Structures
1.
Amino acid sequence: MRILALSAAIAVSLSMPLSAADYSLTVYSAAQPGSLSTERLADYGDRLPGYALVRDRREMSLPQGIGEVRFSDVAKRIDPTTVSFASLTDPAGTRVIEQNYQYDLVDSQKLLQRYLGQQIMVERLRGEQSDRISGRLLSATGGLILAREDGSVLTLNSWSNVEFPALPGGLMSKPTLVWTLDAQRGGKHDAQVSYQTQGMTWWTDYNATLVDAGGMCKLDLQAWVSLVNQSGASYPSAQLKLVAGQVNRAPAPMERAAYDMPVPMAAPAPAPAGFAESELFEYHLYTLGRRTDLPDNSVKQLELFPAILGTNCQRELVFTASPQPYYWSGPNLDQNFAATQKGEVNAYLLFANTEANRMGLPLPGGRVRVNQQNAVDGSLEFIGEDLIEHTPRGETLRLTLGKSFDVVGERKQTAFAYDEKARRIVESFEVELRNGKKVAVDLTVREYLYRWSDWKIAEASQDYRKQDAQTIDFAVSVPPEGKRTLRYSVTYQW
């Protein structure tokens, strides 16, 4: 790489802050649960599904009257239409007349293009020696072309350094907000700058441990937040808040926020070191009870809430062999449709998100990974994972973990009678379940009544429960290393 350097210090007339920033960030996530991973973050770039509201409070020096203030401590992915500047010292006497966002950042090619026709100094290496060449830059395309003072023209295909007298006007070393302020009072002001920026998001991962407590199903649950900062700025010792919920954003750019006087807020009560949950409109707000550093281009993991131990859970096996209901324009008269099918037994884990079950927390959507202790050596082994949506208090979560290895079955049609005149179908099925375990298993046989919407179970070898308009469940117990057969008949009428 060819290196370019400035021969003089860059003089940028910013109104520099007089104190370090006091950052407060609220981070919003637009990611679907389980859709992000740390390995893929670099692929998103500006499309990272999330954003943050940044509040930067610090002491600044403002000119009296109408003057210009430049502020460069902003994120590279800032949305300039959301910027708000306010003086907390003199809010009534300080207002913004005009704002410019300057983002034409300096790089080597821009510097060369800005110095076409002007004098520059080039350093060239020849072995272990170097020489310095001065000349007027004629071209910077495919190398450098210099006009020397003696009238000769020199082309350079390689060089080590280029020295420029100064940074050209209009080029910035970092994104900069430029305000024209009208301040009745000059000097030190306690000021706050707030804006939205892309390049930040968060998601939740849950780690669950299934515990066999004397034949009872128990669950330990941990929750961790992964917070991504690719905004182009770092936020040391920041106050952090996370919003869980689907916050609508208009597709068009937002109007610039008004520069209203901020409402003074009472000092918050001391919060615990972890996250404290509260309601915010139709969403949930998680406030970290301590400050944390958020470096640029980083992923930080934070505990969302202390581990929950001993939650009651339920293991469930569900056998399904019939197809899902179809929405026909008329009854399905094809006798061979799904007449004989091998099914599968899916394994589920259920638990109630209630205070009585040691939980009762609003759970942000995320990935739940479930482990179980190995009975042979006591080590934890991974047994499955599932995604959950945002789940309020009082709901029951149902995790799909996988398919049973030892419990199998099949479903076959044993009778089919179609009476065209009576507009009726009578169909019978036999479901055989086989258990390869050395212990009995209880499972649910789920049957979908897919031929027509008007149906009635004519007879069944055991009781069933109607789940919805086209679904019935049979509770079946299969003996150790044995089998069980379920039979039923259904009548469709139209």
Note: Residues 1-16, 252-271 have pLDDT under 50 and may be disordered.
2.
Amino acid sequence: MDEYKIARDKMVQRLAEHYKISDQRVLDVMSEVPRHLFVPEALKFQAYRDNALPISSNQTISQPYIVAKMTELLELTPACKVLEIGAGSGYQTIILAKLARAVYAIERIPALAKEAKQKLTEFGVKNVTISCEDGTNGWPIYSPFDAVIVAAGSPSVPNPLLEQLKPGGKLVIPIGEDPKSQVLFRFIKEAQGYTTEEHGACSFVPLIGDHGWES
């Protein structure tokens, strides 16, 4: 018996009713994936609350709403190939893996990359490849991607991530001149240029790298 199932169901109900998340595939997957297994032991009781939580290496696991919103904005199908920048402890990664054909995840912090790999192995997830490097450069060898998701705040949009999108592909990324405060953007690659959309204020750890913040 999953002792957190009731709490998880309430979280998903809140996503649908309060936040108006309408992609049923996203809601179904978030009702399946045990978020409490991706946070420190001492914080498990907080896992289904509506807030981000600290994980190791001074990083965070995103607020459930933000995970759902960003995932919904990607408009994934079972045929999609996804690039994830900032895998953290692997929670968002496994959600993407259940919605898409293949996920290529980059995590710059070795301890977290190792933790995410272990979690994915424990869950028997086979369609994820994880690398430990600078995610702001993307992953050219596996491009182009149907979708790119960035779980850290950037001062501007990293051009390599835009360039590695397929036509019609979507990049969802927090952008802001303040390292602690951003706006969630979605870029959609068109035949000529990109469509740009704003989707509300958010707060992420800084995106460190060649095309992000300096460490």
Note: The two ends are 44 Å apart (CA to CA).
3.
Amino acid sequence: MVEIDLTGKTYLVTGGSQGLGAATVRRLHAAGGSVFINYFPDESQANRQRAEELAGELGSRAVPVPADVTDREQVDAMFAAIRQHGYGLHGLVNNAAVIRDRTLRKMTDDEWEAVIRTNLTGVFRVCRAAAEVLADGGRIVSLASISAVVGFFGQANYASAKAGVIALTKVLSKELASRRITVNAVAPGVVLTDMGASIPEAVRGEMLKNIPLGCFGEPDDIANAILFLCSDLAKYVSGQTLHVNGGWWG
């Protein structure tokens, strides 16, 4: 039997308090890893509460850390906090993302920039900071999207940002290869998270017709792919985008 064992390794998951992020945190932790659960420090403290509840559920080896990934100072402070815990860092999962769907004619500059700032620039900033502390042989996995290759109606900002994540993944896989750090992306199809549920029912019905397996993804389907890319089983996989979409595209 081949098992994935992450004992003794530490990971940071951005946007880890809910949705795909929380599913990924649970998977990495279940495999024996220690996990820093990044959350956006919103005024309502809802994200903090979710992160603390998740850490409490998992018990040891799970630590919440706040940071807005679009803010360089907060990102630097997050990595300083990680170092203060005395852990090395063996993997990064870039999951934090926002969505502001609107057609091109109606999309505002703020809606464009908010999505690019979080979903692409945020990934760049976190990767840049992580590269300074990641152990040799570490892992970076970033969440792209089927939207990056299909281009869904009303997602000029989101699709552009996620396409940028795929390009950034290819570049970083070359720049960090000398340290045996692998850099990959996972591109989910439609997944049954809060974000997926925000898609109008009629639109989801049309999307479902394009999926050969006949169902939408579950968060664990994506988390399992991330777990593989974080493991020693994927030590020769780098610069790739793994499409997890039920056969819709790829």
Note: The chain has a mean pLDDT of 95.
